[in-house]
Design brief:
Blueprint: E1 3-6, H1 11-22, E2 28-30, H2 41-51, E3 55-58, H3 66-71, H4 73-94, E4 99-105, E5 115-116, H5 131-151, E6 154-160, E7 162-164, H6 177-191, E8 195-199, E9 205-206, E10 208-210, H7 211-222, E11 228-233, E12 240-241, H8 242-253, E13 258-262, E14 271-274, H9 277-282, H10 291-307
Parallel strand pairs: 1-2, 1-3, 3-4, 4-6, 5-14, 6-11, 7-10, 8-13, 9-14
Antiparallel strand pairs: 9-12
Helix pairs in contact: 1-7, 2-4, 4-5, 6-8, 6-10, 8-10
The structure holds NADP nicotinamide-adenine-dinucleotide phosphate.
């Protein structure tokens, strides 16, 4: 099976590629860094025609921090929508039998939902703080559905919570939230800081997924699922407060300083946890990585990456 990983050098794409290789696949990684700009439709068509993939794992996105996606809201909307439209137009012309797997971020859920259930995905607007990016994840689902209706293109859509794990950037401004906390605490420990400051009360509860688990669920569906346009949560229905996460990192890193919560900064929504009913029905045997094990491995990755 010929597998193409778009955004293959990004945080999720790299992990997916590594897991595929471990299982004996030989995936092709593509992004702008090695010559495919998905904003260019004819380039995308030409690449897909030359590769003729059977499966496309779509980890390409113009993403960024909460601050970034608001400051560059129009660019984020434009680029992601164009990437999505070009991807499906190129698949339709170049490799219409290829399946497309899309990890949709759970920030696309309505802003006011604390338990995120698939049948409530459309029940309200996404939160203003993620307006640009969250809405493009909804567009991705709609585009995949329209290409299924008219051209029979098969997509498998998942809704995925915040990821953490090895392989992400070492710049805390360009990493995902939990990884960023590990980097900052590692630096605080090296400097011998007595206090580690966390913005906000530490009370908001979020669900986290070890990045390799996203790759593992993709591997599970490769042989089992032909098409799944209605997105399914990749979910444990288990959240941790920011304070709990900080305490786990502190314990595993053996950081002796004190955690301080700066309540001058606002908290986001109090709780965001994904319902796991459908996931458990469909994937009863899937085991998620224990959070402490995942964080331990992520700390080890950053200790090495930041020391070298
Ligand atoms: N990370 C999470 O917590 C998380 C959680 C849920 C779902 N997801 C989803 O997983 C996907 C990947 O996320 P990520 O965290 O891995 O993002 P990421 O680290 O920012 O990676 C995105 C990738 O897309 C590529 N890209 C950007 N613009 C492109 C373009 N015009 N043409 C071709 N490639 C382009 C980038 O590489 P170049 O700059 O080299 O082009 C990069 O490799 C996204 O759809 C995201 O919504 C992520």
């Amino acid at each position: 099976m010929k597998i193409l990983v778009l955004g293959g050098f990004g945080f999720v794409g790299k992990s997916v590629t590594e897991e595929l290789r471990k299982k004996g696949f030989d995936p092709i990684q593509l992004s702008r860094s090695n010559g495919l700009d998905l904003l260019d439709l004819s380039a995308a068509k030409a690449k897909f025609e030359s590769i003729r993939p059977d499966l496309i794992i779509n980890c390409a996105a113009h993403s960024g921090s909460l601050h970034y996606i608001s400051e560059y809201a129009a660019d984020v909307m434009h680029d992601n929508t164009q990437i999505i439209l070009n991807l499906y137009a190129a698949v339709k012309d170049a490799c219409p039998a290829a399946r497309v797997i899309n990890p949709l971020s759970n920030c696309s859920y309505p802003g006011n939902s604390d338990i995120q259930r698939e049948d409530e995905w459309w029940s309200g607007p996404v939160h203003k703080s993620v307006w640009s990016y969250g809405n493009t994840r909804k567009i991705l689902k709609v585009v995949s559905e329209c290409y299924a209706m008219q051209y029979g293109i098969k997509s498998i859509n998942f809704l995925v919570p915040n990821a953490y794990g090895p392989g992400d950037s070492t710049d805390p401004n360009h990493t995902h939230a939990l990884n960023g906390m590990i980097i900052r605490m590692h630096r605080a420990k090296r400097r011998g800081d007595d206090v580690f400051e966390i913005w906000g009360s530490g009370k908001p509860v979020r669900e986290w997924i070890f990045v390799r688990d996203i790759a593992r669920i993709f591997l599970t569906v490769i042989d089992r699922v032909e098409s799944q346009v209605e997105p399914i949560n990749v979910a444990q229905k288990k959240g941790y407060s920011i304070k709990e996460i900080a305490e786990i990192i502190k314990r595993l890193m053996k950081y002796a300083g004190r955690l301080e919560f700066n309540t001058k900064y606002q908290d986001g929504d109090p709780k965001k946890v994904l319902d796991n009913t459908l996931f458990r029905e469909r994937f009863p045997d899937f085991r998620f990585t224990d959070i402490a094990d995942g964080i331990r491995e992520t700390i080890a990755y950053y200790q090495k990456a930041l020391e070298s």
